């Protein structure tokens, strides 16, 4: 594939990601994607094989969880592993707001594409569960129910996505990425009784 073809494919993916986040998958047409990308309408079928395949390709290209296998050293230690997951999920959701919004839309509405989304997000949460389980076995985390601990970690990590109409309660209109990640992580590790967390 030439550089020009690669550039056009990426323009289509960026355009689709933007429009899916703004209008939803069902509310976005192939023609709108191509108009946004400045592409011939036939190129979606030519490069991807249709709108559904574009949706999948967006996750293949932009979802950071596919990089988990490169972090084995962190996952050898439960506190480091869980910390990495929490930080990266928060960073991702605050930096790539479009893809984060798409994930939220598809999962909340339980659309036919939720299975695709889950195929990318589930391994990340499965690793968080493994870190919690391993941490308790090693005496690093203290909790009664693994399921409830995982739900707590998921809820705290994604809390900034759920604020919605309560955003006026926050002192900052836009959350700072690193500050939000570190404060959330501190809260989670303290609740789990992790070593080094304040009493």
TrEMBL record:
Protein name, as recorded: TetR family transcriptional regulator
Organism of origin: Paenibacillus tyrfis
Lineage top rank: taxon: Bacteria
Keywords: DNA-binding, Transcription, Transcription regulation
Gene Ontology molecular function terms on file: DNA-binding transcription factor activity; transcription cis-regulatory region binding
DNA-binding stretch(es), residue numbering of this chain: 29-48
Keyword Transport recorded: no
SUPFAM superfamilies: Homeodomain-like (SSF46689), Tetracyclin repressor-like, C-terminal domain (SSF48498)
